[in-house]
Amino acid sequence: MDSASPDPVPAPVTTIAWRLAHIIVSCLGYRVGWHFGGQDVDSQTFAYAGTADEALKQLDEMYGRWNAGVRELSDADLENPPTGGPERFPMEGIVLHVNRELIHHGAEISLLRDLYRWQDGAVPRRI
């Protein structure tokens, strides 16, 4: 992951790799560490994937940890703020936010993938 302050003008075009890294580290990784006893994830030292296959493996692993942790939450756990991590609102709001992020960024990945496939006539058009 990269960042600059102030933001560059024009802003760079996002990539599938960046979106996957954002989901794996920022959306899932931090929260798995904070809320479900996983290893703390640091965006500066995380071993980002070098290939698509590796990124998908990281995504599957981190989502599996997130999903398992959420499934173990009781009603009381969901209604109250978590005991660890910086987020101080009910866990149900955190779960909702993470799921919205996964849907949002997953849709962006799908769009970028479709646009990539259609660039320069790489895929024959069917009408």
From TrEMBL:
Q: Which InterPro entries match?
A: DinB-like, DinB/YfiT-like
Cite a single Pfam family from the UniProt record: DinB_2
Positions of the DinB-like domain:
10-109
Q: Which Gene3D superfamilies match?
A: dinb family like domain (1.20.120.450)
Q: What is this protein called?
A: DinB family protein
